[in-house]
Task: inverse folding
């Protein structure tokens, strides 16, 4: 419901900002809309499979990964739009998208291997997690050291620099919640912590709310201040 409400907010607020930021706010709204739809699917699944004692695990991984595969690249688009005036190249956007796809595809295969309790293409859950982390590290590199960072540093707009700093904070700290959750899967390094594993969906839900709505609000704030 928060995702849905955030979408309504971003779509309506879009009318009040300057033309330059309208597309960014539209993307913010699309991110939360896509998430709202997937949360409805997940809720439906949870309701129909609820048996009392497996309530906390009854949510299919597929919906999360389909959602992430759509929303994470859209977050890359937000970085691109933010830095476009500072000269961001389309190649930078493609690099970020490619890293995202690597991160999510490897993560999904790793989840499958945990589910099946066997290696896939020679890698166990942990190995796929390492490959996935390379994708995440690529994004982090790009925004903390690479072209994106350089463009932000060179931007004459203090509001853009401020928003960029906040957004990359989400990528580094907010996104760390996902690999931590992944590490509680069977066969991985935190798999002993059943408490965390049992509540992983709740942790992911909170992570998504912060990372999608919070991210969108940073863009909204910039759009409201920006000329
Ligand atoms: C709105 C959804 C977002 C921002 C999802 C982000 C997901 C990640 C950053 C996932 C990262 C993973 C790793 C870095 C390693 C283990 C596998 C993943 C896919 C959980």
Result:
């Amino acid at each position: 419901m928060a995702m849905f409400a955030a979408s309504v907010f971003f779509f309506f607020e879009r009318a009040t900002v300057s033309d330059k930021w309208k597309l960014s706010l539209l993307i913010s709204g699309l991110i939360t809309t896509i998430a709202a739809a997937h949360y409805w699917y997940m809720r439906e699944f949870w309701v129909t499979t609820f048996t009392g004692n497996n309530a906390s695990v009854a949510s299919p991984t597929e919906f999360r990964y389909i959602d992430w595969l759509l929303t994470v690249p859209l977050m890359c688009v937000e970085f691109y739009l933010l830095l476009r005036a500072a000269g961001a190249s389309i190649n930078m956007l493609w690099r970020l998208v490619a890293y995202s796809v690597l991160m999510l595809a490897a993560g999904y295969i790793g989840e499958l291997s945990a589910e099946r309790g066997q290696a896939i293409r020679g890698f166990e859950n942990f190995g796929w997690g390492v490959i996935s982390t390379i994708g995440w590290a690529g994004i982090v590199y790009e925004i903390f050291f690479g072209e994106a960072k350089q463009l932000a540093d060179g931007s004459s707009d203090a509001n853009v620099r401020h928003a960029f700093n906040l957004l990359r904070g989400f990528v580094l700290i907010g996104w760390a919640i996902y690999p931590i959750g992944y590490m509680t899967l069977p066969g991985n390094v935190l798999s002993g912590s059943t408490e965390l594993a049992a509540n992983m969906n709740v942790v992911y839900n909170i992570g998504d709310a912060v990372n999608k709505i919070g991210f969108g609000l940073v863009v909204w704030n910039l759009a409201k201040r920006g000329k």
